[in-house]
Amino acid sequence: MELRILNYFLTVAEEENITKAAKLLHVSQPTLSRQLMQLEEELGVQLFKRSNHNIILTQEGLMLKRRAKEMLVLADKTKEELSGNGEAISGKIAIGCGELLSVSELAEIMTAFQGKYPLVTYDIYSGNTVGIKERMENGALDLGLLIEPVEVEKYEFVRMKTKEEWGVLVNENLPIADKPHIRPEDLVGIPIMIASSNPIQNELASWFGDYADDIKVASTYNLIYNSAIFAQKKSGALLCIKLNSSYKGLKFVPLFPRLTLSSVLAWKEHQEFSKTTAAFIQFVKEMQNMNN
After folding, report:
1. Most C-beta atoms within 10 A of its C-beta, which of 81, 102, 130, 151?
2. Backbone torsions φ then ψ of 131, nearest 5 degrees
3. Are 8 and 21 contacting, i.e. CB atoms less than 8 angstroms apart?
4. How many CB atoms lie within 10 A of CB 146?
5. What distance in Å separates the CA atoms of residue 195 and residue 98, rounded to the nearest whole number?
6. pTM beyond cutoff 0.85
């Protein structure tokens, strides 16, 4: 599969219309249609269901769309790394971040490094641990800021100083919002929203203790923002970490006994990085040693 053809495919998939895609790509519609048919023949699957007005991706098409995005991102990243092998420390570093207070700590490190090497830029991806680790594995991300507990056997890492405190984000008009802290028994009978990460769920289940079987999990989430909207509508209490952000009509109440977790900035062990990324990793290690 040529990268050019994958780009054609992605444009058509996003526009859902061959005529519009052909205009964006500056190719004729017959040429584009022929390239897509050849791609289907090469793969031996049908990628689109065609109609008079638009096209719809098949299941195979949806799978290729996801993989094609990853392949094109990786190709661009590889090209940039290879073209940046001169003397100057320059180019892009791709970093994945969870919704964590320690992002502020990471931002200070990134700013200090960029002050030393002003030609460096960053590509920031926001997501949960699963999504970040997946992108680190396929090479789309160089480093990831991950909340513990997390399996780090494949990674080198530095532990961040910031502690992530857990609590409940709840509509301020509900009775539990008036409590100074939330105990496990306070959540009995209240629908709760909980992180989809299995390690995090295990930590919270341990905190629930004897009340674990009595607490109703109404939904899971990967990022906090959308779940906070449900909490605003009194759809339940959101179990989450405390962030430097506020939501209208919601109040954060810490857990008791107190539950705090650490986070790590991780990168794949024994991997050959670009000179710029390798310099950044060394910079991170040196800053950690200075702070110890």
Report:
1. 102
2. -65, -40
3. yes
4. 29
5. 12
6. no
Q: Which residues of 54-82 are buried (b: 16+ CB within 10 A; e: fewer)?
A: ebebeeebeebbeebeebebeeebeebbe
What pLDDT, in 10s, does the model give residues 157-178? 999 999 999 999 999 999 999 9
CA angle 126, 128, 129 (to 5 degrees): 120
What would you measure as the largest C-alpha separation in the chain, in angstroms? 67
Q: Which residues pair with 92 in a beta bridge?
A: 121
Per-residue model confidence as pLDDT tens digits over 96-149: 999 999 999 999 999 999 999 999 999 999 999 999 999 999 889 999 999 998
Q: Are 281 and 143 in contact (CB under 8 A)?
A: yes
Task: Report in angstroms the alpha-carbon separations of 268 from 134, 158, 211, 285.
Answer: 12, 12, 39, 15
